[in-house]
Amino acid sequence: MDIIIYGTQYGTAKKYAKELSCRTEIPCASYEEINDINIYSTIVYIGSLYAGGVQGMKKTMANYEVGKDKKLIVVTVGLADPTDNENTDHIKGGVKKQLPVGVYEQATVLHFRGAIDYTKLNFKHKTMMGLLVRKAKNLPEEKKNAEVRAMIETYNQVVDFVDYESLSSIIDELK
Ligand SMILES: Cc1cc2nc3c(=O)[nH]c(=O)nc-3n(C[C@H](O)[C@H](O)[C@H](O)COP(=O)(O)O)c2cc1C
How many domains is the chain partitioned into structurally? Predict the structure, then answer.
């Protein structure tokens, strides 16, 4: 059995998951609906990034066992530029830490760009971003990496970098 799992707070990762489900006919579900992760042979986990963590992944994948005929594709959705290697190395490091030992090495990890609408953020997230951006703005120019730049550039705005064309990279991996 194959599955697309999504982890989202505001719906961007779900949009990618639903569209992928339409294109592949693989069913999709929120991580909150998953009971036994080991019944699936192919898993595409599409999760949004929150302070470097992939929404819901650590808990959902905690008991995952690698297997000869199993396939795991982890797709992160974030605001920072996924063509920036420093950024993706940092994300990959976070993904590795959130997976059981030995699982990261068997997984394919891809990075998509997400969206943010500050008018829809909850109080906690709005406060967090306010503090982070204030700190980020004070950093010397050479310390402003892709993540910091994305945060400053998109602060208090409505931005949408969702690009369904990037789904073809998952579809290629599924072949
Ligand atoms: C509190 C907070 C922390 C975030 N942390 C990161 C991050 O570490 N890296 C990143 O690229 N984007 C980060 N983002 C941006 C989200 O990943 C992005 O808005 C994503 O599309 C949200 O997905 P969702 O709509 O599925 O919840 C953060 C956003 C918020 C509000």
Answer: 1
- Residue 128 inside a domain? The answer is no
Domain hosting residue 95, numbered range: 2-115+159-174
> Can you tell me which atom of ligand 1 is nearest the CA of 51?
8
> 40 alpha carbon to ligand 1 midpoint, in Å?
27
CA 66 to chain centre: 21
Question: What angle in degrees, to the nearest 10, is found between the helix axes of 146-154 and 123-137?
Answer: 120
Q: Which of 46, 28, 19, 20 is CA-nearest to residue 112? A: 46
- Mind listing the pLDDT tens digit for each residue in 85-118? 999 999 999 999 999 999 999 999 999 999 999 9
Question: The whole model's pTM is what?
Answer: 0.97
Position 41 in a domain:
yes
Residue with CA nearest ligand 1 atom 11: 78
